[in-house]
Amino acid sequence: MGSLQAVKRKRLRLFLVIGLVLSAVFAGWSWFRPYEWGADSAAGCRVSLVQVRKDKSFYWVEMHLKLLEGEGYDLMKPARLICAGGRELEPADTTLGGDREQGVTTDLWFRFWLEGEQIEGPLRLRINEGELVVKGNEGVPRLGASGSEVFVTNRW
Prior knowledge:
Layout: H1 2-32, E1 45-55, E2 58-67, E3 80-82, E4 88-89, E5 93-99, E6 104-115, E7 123-127, E8 130-135, E9 148-151
Antiparallel strand pairs: 1-2, 1-9, 2-6, 3-4, 3-7, 5-6, 7-8
């Protein structure tokens, strides 16, 4: 009887270790995966995350972008959000981040004000000489009870 319990304990430990390893692999993959696979390098940056907040029948879409190593943001070529119907929107707010003393920009934040039907389709951001996929799915994103959600992939 004692050896049967020992076998069960060993088997249970093995399943627990396998479960722990699989959980760690999934957490690492989730943490390090890019927002968009195969992003356009001509854009000079990559999307880090996007936060969507509902405001009555409208949506605030705020995106955080990281500039690629050695790249800059050309202020003379303004960013535009392209909705499914082809309509281009200017950002309601633009924030630059980086080292002020050295005059280096490393991060960008854009906020866009979208109407309900504009957020239903795919969204692309035209920046510098390229385009980035902000939202690749159709439909209105599911937001939590707070009316806000942060997305770390373009599948929302």
